[in-house]
Amino acid sequence: MALSQSITILYFAAASTSTGLTTETVPIPESGSLPLNDLPKILISRHPNASGLNDILESSQWSIDAEMVEEPERVVLKGGEEVAVICPVSGG
């Protein structure tokens, strides 16, 4: 029997506040891959009551295995990755 692949999502700042989580495991679809651009809609579907999550994810950047993603549309997750939601920060 094949093992289901998954990714680990790390939530920080507003994303953590919205979901009430700092980390979660998300399975990769049976196809064996998940385009990074599809991840926001999966996270939103997993947290339908998370206040403002859609807006937070739209304004956030992504980090995969501690490296910032410059072109999320070109990234396909295969399983085993650690994906961080990096919310915008404002200074004062």
UniProtKB/TrEMBL annotation:
The modification 1-thioglycine is found at G92. Pathway: Cofactor biosynthesis; molybdopterin biosynthesis. Residues 1-18 form the signal peptide. One of its GO terms (cellular component) is molybdopterin adenylyltransferase complex. The modification Glycyl adenylate is found at G92. GO terms for biological process: Mo-molybdopterin cofactor biosynthetic process. It is found in: Cytoplasm. It comes from the Eukaryota. Keywords: Cytoplasm, Molybdenum cofactor biosynthesis, Nucleotide-binding, Phosphoprotein, Signal. InterPro entries: Beta-grasp_dom_sf, MOCS2A, MOCS2A_euk, Mopterin_synth/thiamin_S_b. One of its GO terms (molecular function) is molybdopterin synthase activity. C-terminal thiocarboxylation occurs in 2 steps, it is first acyl-adenylated (-COAMP) via the hesA/moeB/thiF part of UBA4, then thiocarboxylated (-COSH) via the rhodanese domain of UBA4. Belongs to the MoaD family. MOCS2A subfamily. Heterotetramer; composed of 2 small (MOCS2A) and 2 large (MOCS2B) subunits. PANTHER family: MOLYBDOPTERIN SYNTHASE SULFUR CARRIER SUBUNIT (PTHR33359:SF1). Acts as a sulfur carrier required for molybdopterin biosynthesis. Component of the molybdopterin synthase complex that catalyzes the conversion of precursor Z into molybdopterin by mediating the incorporation of 2 sulfur atoms into precursor Z to generate a dithiolene group. In the complex, serves as sulfur donor by being thiocarboxylated (-COSH) at its C-terminus by UBA4. After interaction with MOCS2B, the sulfur is then transferred to precursor Z to form molybdopterin. This is Molybdopterin synthase sulfur carrier subunit.
